[in-house]
Design a protein that fits this description.
single chain, alpha/beta, Alpha-Beta Plaits, Rossmann fold, five-stranded mixed beta sheet, 21% helix, 22% strand, elongated
Amino acid sequence: MATVVRKIIRIDEDKCDGCGACALNCAEGALEIVDGKARVVGEFYCDGLGACIGHCPQGALTIEERACAAYDHAAVERKAGKRMPDPFAAHGAHDAHAASGTTGTGGKPPACGCPGSNVMELRPMAAFGKAATPAGAATASADSALSNWPVQIRLVPPSAPFLEGARLLVASDCSPVATGRFHTEFLPGRVALLGCPKFDPNLDEVREKFVEIFRRNGIRDVRVLEMEVPCCRGITGVVVAARDEAAVDVPVLRTLLARTGETLLEETL
């Protein structure tokens, strides 16, 4: 079987205790417990979307990008003995191309060196907390509390000037569209860092980046916006693990949001 480079589940055998929660929650049947450990029993069964990640109580599951068999939905249906929902129908063409190892751009790799990743401070933090803009005043950014660019965790270097002495808002990619309070309640006065534990290919690299951010910038505190969906649980775990590894005394406030935007839980870690 031909191989492609795509995202697929990676299992840390040292962390896996063989509880089987991942296998029970793998709709495609890619995971089974073999000799007391979770195993990918067929690479072509794994869609690489990571719905199983949030179900592992030991944090043994991550997503990596490597050469492997392409996802085969027909094989998944044959194994299940029934019609199965196509996991990529809800995730769009980009993810379908990723699972099959294609780019969706005529075979050409996407352009690199995007100017959108240039580091910039959009407004000084001192601007927050000042008197509100008078009603009717014309300002293009009156409704935005964003103070930094870029915002994606993978694109922000630990040396970015806006991180020095910052208060961080580490938010799941879905949270800004799930709650209307993002710019009014959660973001003002904070540096925004967005990511998704399901689609970040290597959570160890994300953790290592946060370790460096904590060690070099004198971060004051962190608020994590986590969605209620299971695959989102990893974002808080990465931040807390990085803080502990960096050996810094930084409070982390976990805010769990419902899909409809309500706050379900808040706890300080």
